[in-house]
Amino acid sequence: MNTKKKHAKQVFRVWAKITNECYLDVLAESAEDAYDIGRNEDGGGFLQDDDMFAGSWEVLPYPEPVEEDSTYPRLPCLLKVDGGEG
After folding, report:
1. 22 phi-psi bin (left φ>0, alpha ψ -120 to 50, beta other)
2. Where are the alpha helices (DSSP H) in the chain?
3. Is residue 26 over pLDDT 90?
């Protein structure tokens, strides 16, 4: 016999982290120099191939209750899952 008490269901937000791969072609004297140039970019110059759209993704282990009035603008998380963690 199951003696667990049933609780009312509640909405929880489960977060996921997505890592997409992008690239930047730079003119440099060495691989180390190219790495430094890339690290100093603000990200706007990096490009993404259509084939590289979905990188790896991982569901994070800290769901949190959703407040009833949480109505901030949301964008869909576009994933093209092709194997990997997700």
Report:
1. beta
2. 31-39
3. yes
Higher pLDDT, 53 or 31: 31
* Rg of the Cα atoms in the chain: 20
Handedness of CA 57, 62, 65, 71 (dihedral sign): negative
Q: Which amino acid is at 45?
A: G
Task: Please report, as a single letter, which amino acid is at residue 62.
Answer: Y
Nearest CA-CA partner of 49 in 81, 72, 20, 13: 20
- Alpha-carbon span 6 to 24, nearest angstrom: 53
Partnered with residue 1 across adjacent β-strands are none
pTM of the model: 0.48
C-alpha 12, offset from chain centre: 18
Q: Which residue has the tokens 């199951």?
A: 2
| pLDDT > 90: percent of the chain | 20
